[in-house]
Amino acid sequence: MTDIWFKAGEATVLAAEGQATDAMPEVLIGSVRGPVGQALASMMGQVQGHTRMFVVRDLNQLVRPLTMMTTKATIHTAEYVDLLGGVVQAAMGDAIIDCVSEGILPKDEVDELAMIIMVWLDPRCAEDPDLDKADLYRTNYEATKLAISRAIKGEPSIDELIANRKSVKHYALEGVIEY
Hints:
Elements: E1 7-10, E2 26-31, H1 35-42, E3 52-54, E4 66-71, H2 78-101, E5 113-119, H3 133-153, H4 158-163
Parallel strand pairs: 4-5
Antiparallel strand pairs: 1-2, 2-5, 3-4
Helix pairs in contact: 2-3
Protein name: Formaldehyde-activating enzyme
Domain Formaldehyde-activating enzyme: 9-171
Pfam families: Fae
C-alpha cells in the first residue's frame, strides 16, 4: 500500500516563439484505494466537449500508474481531438514512464497509484497550419514531468509561497494591481 494519498502539482512550460503550444498540466496523484482512485473511477463516462481518456504511449501501451487525462478547454473539432489523443497524449505518456524510470514516481507502487491530469491544449493549435508538433510534444513532456515532480515533492512549499507573495504575481494582473 502506498503512502502517497493525495498530492497535487502543476507546471507551465512556454511555447517556442510564434507557437500556441504552451503546456499547463495540473496533476493529482494518490492511492487507487483513496479519493484519487475514486475520482478517476467516477470519470469513466464522457462529458460533452471535455474528452476523458486513459494515457497511453501508443496502441496497447497503457501507462502505469494508471492515468486519466481530461481537457481544460472545450473541444470543438476533430483536429483538436487528434492533437490531444496523439501528440499530447504521447508526450504525457512518455513523461510518466520517464518519471517512473528516473525514480520520481516509485516503481514498486505503480499499481497502487492513480493520476488525473487536466490538460491545456490551446484551441488555436488545431487551426494552425504551421503548428510545430515537436514543440507541442516538448512543452507537454516537460510540463508533465515537472508537474508530477512538484506534486510528489509538495512544491511550491507554503514558505516559498509566503516569501514570494509580493514579488510574484499572475500575468493577468499586469497593470491591474501593484504590489
